[in-house]
Design brief:
binds pantoate; 6-stranded parallel beta sheet; Pantoate--beta-alanine Ligase, Chain: A,domain 2; 12 helices; 4-stranded antiparallel beta sheet; 10 strands; Rossmann fold; globular
Length: 278
Amino acid sequence: MQVFKTRESIYNHLQDLKKQQKTIGFVPTMGALHEGHRTLLQKSYAENDITVCSIFVNPLQFNNTEDLDKYPRTIETDMAFIDSCCDILFYPDYSEIYPDTPNETFEFGNLETNLEGAFRPGHFYGVAVVVHRLFNIVNPDKAYFGLKDFQQLQIIKSLVEQKNHAIEIIPCEIIRESDGLAMSSRNKRLLDSERKLAPIIYQTLKQAADILKNKSVEESKMFVKNTFEKHKEFSLEYFEWVEPNSFEITNVQKPLTVGLIAIWLGKVRLIDNIIVTQ
Ligand code: PAF
């Protein structure tokens, strides 16, 4: 795996590869890599001539400085972990991505104001700026994103449309631990006792999906609220059903409905989701 630290060096190298008709797959990350990331890289590795991974903890998308400070930074382990499924790593310093103050503009509508957008003001602006800049540096043919960050995925699709990036966005299924917990770099911060409780999140989502199918949106939401009230370690931030394209919160089941949850477990904020088709 080759490592590039500067925009210019990786841009020039990838342009040369493109001239040789090589296809480029891209997996942007913030490091602290786990099996979920590796699955994205393996998919890219199988589908493209060259696979590029970026590791950059993007301060612009953190609305909480404690979260930014505590974000795990494990570059050596990360590099060993992805060596067999990645050709090129881009590992830039802050000044390479932000030589100037960001002034990009986007129009995300509901995607920016609902759910994650409401609870993490400025988060998606930060994600959109960094991904837009990374896309301009890497110019991939395909870019891979996990469905766990469902709202982020919709933001990226909208970004690609708004900024006319000629990039195919490939959504990839959520990778879970054997007990159902969605893989996340934040899981490392759970205490042992919290980690044991964490599978309740996905179990509850699956039960809520059954209630949605057989009963109503209201009853499924009440079930989720009541379940987490029983465990003092959890603090529910939101659970809503949305129609994925409009990202409108819905009170009735649509042909395609996504249930999205954000919940604190101790000091760690976790997100997950479930897709329900009629
Ligand atoms: O999902 C992430 O890890 C980040 O939000 C991303 C897409 C790499 C942008 O910093």
